[in-house]
Specification:
The protein is of the alpha/beta class and 270 residues long. It contains 5 helices and 14 strands. The strands form 2 sheets. The protein has a 7-stranded antiparallel sheet with strand order 4-3-7-1-2-6-5. A 7-stranded mixed sheet has the order 11-10-9-8-12-13-14, with helices on both faces. The structure holds flavin-adenine dinucleotide.
């Protein structure tokens, strides 16, 4: 377990209720892989007691300075307290934790992001660009105001979708994925899907992929207490069969949060 102190460099509201948090971390913080997360103490006070898990939107290394970035929504007590933490505030976190995205050689990565789920995929896209690997970035949100990070994406093709039609395709990112796939440009042998967003979207993307034999990884989110596999509080139900894994309940914090989306039993996921 890697518990490190960190301090707030910036905690800025980017869109109503959505914040970008930059935390300076010590050199002892291992270089994270896209898809990994940290378990963050959101306040120096003893309340709330439990840490909150957040995927990394980015990792910055300049000389001896290391920082992680988190893109988060205010949804409840913990995130509300986090949003009030000022520049310079000392906190701590455990991480990097979990399993990140694992692209296969010589395949195009098709990234499918829904809303705030774009965060780990932005980190992933930067990594793919660094490695000069081809990718397609499909990003859907309710409106243009929620298309965070689009201008930063370089090195791959981008297609946008909004529910209100304010930018890009008027409809869901799942429709975009179907249209892209039906164009015949990709096959299960040449491309694979990586997705993050609301579980409803992940479920639909997983069904789409499973039905066509496409490899598909999803970054899951769910209630988590210890985040290091001790409390067994974040079990992920797998489908019967599941490539020999049926009936298992892997811990999201240890065997995820990025998992093979086609073997997750989305109906039973809490
Ligand atoms: C591996 C992992 C990575 C994550 N990465 C991110 C991230 O990058 N950015 C981010 O904003 N969140 C992320 N989350 C979710 C984040 O941990 C929760 O939003 C956070 O714990 C909520 O804490 P809270 O005290 O504010 O809300 P709580 O008081 O715990 O919950 C308040 C209410 O909000 C609901 N709720 C909880 N989480 C969410 C959610 N994500 N969206 C909508 N409603 C929710 C709850 O069901 C409850 O009704 C991640 C979770 C996991 C497990």
């Amino acid at each position: 377990m890697n518990l490190v102190g960190c301090s707030v460099v910036e905690n800025r509201e980017i869109a109503p209720g959505n914040f970008l948090l930059t935390l300076k971390v010590p050199r002892g913080f291992a270089r994270p892989e896209p898809g990994q997360f940290v378990h963050l103490r959101v306040s120096p006070e003893s309340e709330p007691l439990l840490r909150r898990p957040y995927s990394l939107e980015g990792f910055v290394e300049r000389g001896k300075i290391r920082a992680v970035r988190i893109y988060y929504s205010v949804v409840g007590r913990g995130s509300r307290v986090l949003a009030s933490q000022p520049k310079g505030q000392e906190l701590d976190l455990i991480g990097p934790l979990g399993v990140g995205f694992t692209p296969r050689p010589r395949r195009t990565s098709v990234l499918v992001a829904g809303g705030r789920g774009v965060a780990p995929l932005l980190f992933f896209a930067r990594k793919l660009r660094e490695k000069k690997r081809p990718f397609l970035f499909l990003f859907g949100a309710r409106s243009s105001r929620e298309l965070y990070g689009v201008r930063e994406i370089r090195g791959g093709r981008i297609h946008l979708a909004t529910d209100d039609g304010s930018v890009g395709y008027h409809g869901s990112v799942l429709d975009l994925l179907k249209r892209q796939w039906e164009s015949g440009e990709h096959t299960p042998l040449t491309a694979e899907i990586f997705t993050c967003g609301p579980h409803g979207l992940l479920h639909e993307v997983a069904e789409f992929a499973a039905g066509r034999g496409i490899r598909c990884e999803a970054s899951l989110e769910g209630p988590m207490a210890c985040a290091v596999g001790a409390c067994r509080g974040c079990p992920v139900p797998l489908l019967p069969g599941a490539g020999g894994n049926g009936g298992r309940y892997p811990a999201m914090c240890i065997e995820g949060p990025v998992m093979d989306a086609t073997i997750v039993d989305w109906e039973r996921l809490p």
